[in-house]
Q: What sequence folds into this?
């Protein structure tokens, strides 16, 4: 046995021992010094975190009709290093994707392993590209927000960007609640960086976004938009706004702007068309504002309904300024001052009230402050503090000049008259609920405070009924439903600070039926041509929308 | 004899060890295959769900008031709420069609009374479209 261990074997044995010792030493140092970075490197190569995208919540109207939903579409990418024949591949892809061949070639020349070729393509396009079976071209599913109504309620709903982040409207305002929470899957991958199925270690599923239910009724919205659109085109206006509101709850049933845009084609629309003018723009209301003056003088009991005012036959000099009526009037009872929209009569009644009290009522009617609606970009309008009022301010403001308001503020003001004297906060969101239908947040109607008494509200409603029955708003008449309202025609201010004789803002604010109002409607037209009177341009829109509302809600004629 | 037993013991250990390892490898392959199958099925499922969502969206799009309005206007048909005179109210079912309740005549009598036939009712909720 001893003889078998020859010196040669011994040498080999010694060599092996030394080799193992060296390996052990190396192992020791690797373990001691480089263990952490090496194990991290191995882990990074071997393990993978997969991001699981949540589904964005749905936006519904009041009747749970979908206004914004998400679908999954495939995006196409390429790994330039894997593309074999760049020229022919680019040519094939250009044909299938309707892109420029040169643009694709430029992408192939980038020093990257991943370049987007097209994002969120239509299923037909995806099928065409798949059919090409090009090595190095892959597909990734991405959520795409789509809007079944297209242009319908576009300024309310808003839109999302390429990364599914809300950029406008409700999509922006409630982005956090709509987008949901991203989930993760911890798994292992093979040498080709593909997930090895069956080896998922941990998974945190994504939490889908919550659904938002609006107060909007898509049918009301549709016919309000249709009427606004036809008036907008007929009078070649620069802009138009319509708001339909429940005067008791403050629920916005429809809110539309012109110009508008298609939510499914954001890129094709001008930025100007995307502005929600109803909350972001303010303007001088003109005679529509007389409801505030009338409400104030009646509430403070400084003027009686039958009290007569001399309207100076249409021309009244006050200080250095001369005020005019659009039609000369002599003596008019106060109710007729409003009915025929006499500026002179209104300012004379306001003089009896005084600036302090008028200012207080302007504030109480909600002007000069945000309404608090859940839409982004709302402005306060422009109501100068009392200290900054000039001697002419009382006269000017009483007839709707020197003050700037938003259409929504006007809607709230007319609702206060309609509902018996309460200021209501406009409500556009009814509730937010999760996928299981559990209510996350409920937005209840909010009556904030009393603006005018029930009695004053009743008197004012009767006066405004007169405006439609026999005054400046005759074209708003809806037979058997007795609407009430106020017309407004405001001169716009030119860049040099003077009032324009060519540019006007026409308005009609009203409600119906006048004794038991169900709906308040505001119609605004910016720079209509050739007609520019609120009673001519906006009152017919009010009439058409109101008559359809009555039929839609099956309200019995009076 | 002792050496012979030792050799067999060693071979036995090697055999059992190899078998265990083979079983382990086989199990891993099975896990992988099952995972692959689950993944494939899931892909088919999600593809169908996505396709369904697109179809539902198309239906919603076609049903939307704006789309209907555009189509009707193209045919010069105005979309408008019906007037009262355009609505015909149907009377409720005539009395002769109303089923009479089965008269109870005691346990034995009821055994011989032919009552209403079973009616199949359609559950509208089961036909509801997929939720998002």
A:
């Amino acid at each position: 046995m001893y003889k078998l261990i020859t010196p040669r074997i011994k040498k080999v044995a010694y060599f092996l021992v030394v080799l193992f010792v060296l390996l052990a030493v190396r192992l020791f140092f690797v373990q001691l010094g480089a263990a952490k970075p090496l194990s991290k490197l191995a882990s990074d190569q071997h393990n993978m975190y997969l991001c699981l995208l949540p589904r964005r919540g749905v936006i519904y109207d009041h009747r749970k009709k979908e206004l914004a939903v998400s679908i999954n579409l495939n995006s196409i990418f390429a790994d330039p290093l894997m593309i074999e024949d760049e020229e022919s591949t680019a040519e094939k892809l250009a044909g299938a994707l309707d892109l420029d061949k040169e643009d694709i070639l430029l992408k192939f020349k980038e020093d990257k392993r991943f370049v987007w070729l097209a994002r969120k393509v239509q299923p037909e396009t995806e099928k065409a590209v798949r059919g090409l079976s090009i090595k190095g071209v892959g597909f990734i599913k991405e959520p795409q927000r789509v809007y079944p109504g297209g242009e319908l309620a576009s300024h309310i709903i808003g839109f999302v960007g390429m990364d599914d982040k809300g950029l406008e409207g409700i999509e922006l305002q409630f982005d956090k609640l709509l987008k949901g929470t991203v989930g993760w899957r911890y798994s292992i991958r093979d040498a080709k960086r593909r997930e090895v199925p069956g080896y998922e270690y941990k998974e945190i599923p994504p939490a889908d976004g919550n659904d938002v239910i609006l107060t909007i009724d898509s049918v009301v919205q549709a016919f309000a938009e249709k009427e606004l659109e036809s008036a907008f085109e007929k009078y070649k206006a620069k802009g138009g706004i319509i708001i339909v509101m429940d005067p008791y709850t403050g629920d916005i049933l429809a809110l539309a702007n012109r110009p508008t845009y298609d939510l499914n084609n954001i890129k094709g629309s001008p930025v100007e068309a995307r502005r929600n003018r109803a909350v972001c723009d303010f303007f001088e209301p003109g005679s529509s504002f007389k409801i505030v003056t009338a409400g104030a003088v009646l509430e403070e009991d400084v003027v009686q309904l039958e009290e007569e005012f001399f309207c100076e036959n249409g021309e009244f000099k006050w200080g250095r300024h001369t005020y005019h009526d659009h039609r000369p009037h002599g003596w008019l009872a106060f109710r007729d001052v409003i009915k025929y929209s006499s500026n002179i009569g209104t300012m004379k009644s306001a003089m009896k009230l005084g600036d302090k009290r008028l200012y207080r009522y302007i504030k109480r009617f909600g002007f000069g402050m945000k309404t608090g609606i859940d839409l982004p970009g709302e402005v306060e309008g422009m109501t100068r503090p009392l200290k900054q009022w000039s001697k002419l301010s009382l006269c000017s403001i009483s007839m709707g000049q020197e003050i700037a308001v938003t259409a929504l503020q006007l809607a709230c003001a007319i609702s206060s008259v309609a509902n018996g004297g309460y200021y209501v906060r406009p409500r556009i969101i009814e509730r937010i609920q999760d996928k299981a239908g559990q209510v996350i947040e409920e937005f209840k109607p909010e009556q904030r405070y009393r603006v005018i008494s029930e009695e004053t509200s009743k008197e004012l409603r009767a006066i405004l009924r007169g405006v439609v029955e026999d005054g400046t708003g005759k074209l708003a008449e809806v037979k058997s439903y007795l609407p009430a309202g106020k017309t407004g025609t405001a001169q716009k201010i030119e860049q040099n600070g003077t009032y324009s004789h060519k540019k006007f803002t026409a308005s009609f604010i009203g409600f119906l039926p006048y004794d038991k109002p169900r709906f308040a409607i505001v119609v605004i037209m910016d720079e209509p041509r050739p007609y520019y009177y609120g009673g001519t341009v906006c009152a017919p829109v009010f009439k058409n929308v109101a008559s359809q509302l009555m039929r839609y809600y099956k309200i019995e004629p009076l | 004899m002792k050496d012979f037993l030792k050799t067999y013991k060693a071979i036995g250990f090697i055999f059992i060890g190899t078998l265990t390892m083979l079983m382990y490898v086989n199990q891993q392959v099975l896990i992988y295959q099952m995972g692959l199958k689950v993944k494939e099925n899931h892909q088919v499922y999600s593809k169908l769900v996505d396709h369904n969502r697109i179809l539902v969206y198309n239906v919603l799009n076609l049903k939307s008031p704006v789309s209907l309005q555009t189509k009707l206007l193209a045919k010069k048909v105005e979309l408008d709420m019906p007037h009262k005179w355009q609505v015909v109210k149907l009377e409720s079912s005539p009395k002769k069609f109303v089923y009479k309740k089965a008269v109870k005549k005691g346990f034995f009598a009821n055994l011989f009374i032919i009552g209403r036939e079973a009616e199949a009712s359609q559950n509208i909720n089961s036909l509801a479209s997929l939720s998002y």
